[in-house]
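Predict fold of Synaptotagmin IIa; 174 aa.
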Amino acid sequence: DKIPLPSWAIIAIAVVAALLILTCCFCIIKKCCCKKKKNKKGKKGKGDMGMKNLKGGEKPQDEDDEEDDVEPGLTGDEKEEEVKEKEKLGKLQYSIDYDFQENKLTVGILQAADLLSMDSGGTSDPYVRVYVLPDKKKKFDTKVHKKTLNPVFNETFTFKIPFQEMGGKTLVMS
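Predicted 3D structure, encoded as tokens:
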């Protein structure tokens, strides 16, 4: 019937157990309810670019425009965390031209720079895959450049797309 512990020890054990249970509940609630909403741009994939935003030229990943990609409404600390999470993949220089006479979109993949090494030797075998969403029927790949992190491609690819359909298309370079 009787527990061989003093009453103050039983109370201390009960308080510690209650605190442990409350801490677990707090962590579960915080994890479920307070998740950061991920930026919707992230769903498209790396290197995606909508046809409405075309300006041509180079699409660098500069340090200056990191803060533009941060979700609005975040505090200073949360912005810093999200900027740190952004992974630098390198730079891709490309050109885009549309021929209204022939209804052709011409994409030129010029060069890449400062790519991440994917091989254990510190180099990579990079290439670029170019296609237009939502119909992934026509995919183009550049030539593979062995063991380099700064490849020069100088290749062009042509897509037949009527001008009226350009607004609903997304050009993907990955």
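The two ends are 72 Å apart (CA to CA).
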